[in-house]
Design brief:
Elements: H1 6-16, H2 23-35, H3 38-54, E1 56-57, E2 64-65, H4 71-75, E3 80-84, H5 87-94, E4 102-105, H6 123-131, E5 137-140, H7 146-159, E6 165-168, H8 184-192, E7 195-196
Helix pairs in contact: 1-2
Length: about 200
């Protein structure tokens, strides 16, 4: 005799598809959803579907946006571009309230072990932006792990001959850690003490 409920198994399995959600956490999420009023569950499901339909990548920077060009690209000076690995890193950097430049989201890092080369991330798009002539500085804000460092150095070698100042966030963000987990003070200090590479 089967002891599980098929609908519950499907719900749990859906939650396990989220990053860092294991079986036990997925079960807790499933129980929480089942305990919610039906109207709240419908809102939750509608919000998921609506977000998936309406959110896309900004055509300029590659960050999440509901519009063709995100509000940051529309309203800020493009003299400084902060290069990050993923859209979630933009959210982390935006906690540093004294940064007024734009961003460029690579959507990954160079990683030969994972079969990801320079053509698999948005480096060409960055070079096109820099080629426009307005950009004076590119801040490399990739994670301080091997892949992030390799990606930063690769991009710096491409940009230096163009006369663009290329800086790297100062250390203070632990080696091997992700930008998204850094606190506001650490990110602020790292941004202020960035160094040229």
């Amino acid at each position: 005799m089967k002891n599980s409920i098929e609908s519950m198994d499907k719900l749990v399995n859906s939650f396990t598809k989220l990053p860092t959600v294991g079986q036990k956490t997925a079960e807790r999420f499933a129980y929480a959803v089942l305990s919610m009023p039906e109207e709240d569950v419908k809102d939750f499901a509608n919000n998921l579907v609506q977000a998936k339909k309406s959110i896309k990548f900004c055509s300029v920077c590659g960050n999440w946006s509901e519009e063709e060009i995100c509000p940051i690209c529309k309203s800020r000076s493009s003299e400084t571009i902060c290069v990050v690995k993923e859209p979630k890193d933009v959210l982390a950097m935006e906690k540093v309230r004294n940064y007024n430049g734009t961003y460029h989201v690579l959507h990954g890092c160079i990683s030969p072990l994972k079969g990801k080369g320079p053509d698999d991330i948005r480096i060409k798009e960055l070079l096109q932006r820099v080629g426009g002539g307005e950009v004076k500085e590119v801040i490399m804000a990739t994670n301080s792990d091997v892949e992030g460092e390799a990606t930063s150095m690769y991009i710096a070698r491409l940009l230096k001959p163009l006369g663009i100042k290329v800086t790297r966030l100062a250390q203070g963000i632990s080696m091997g850690s992700d930008i998204e987990y850094a606190d506001e003070v650490t990110l602020t200090k790292a941004l202020q003490d960035r160094r040229e590479i």
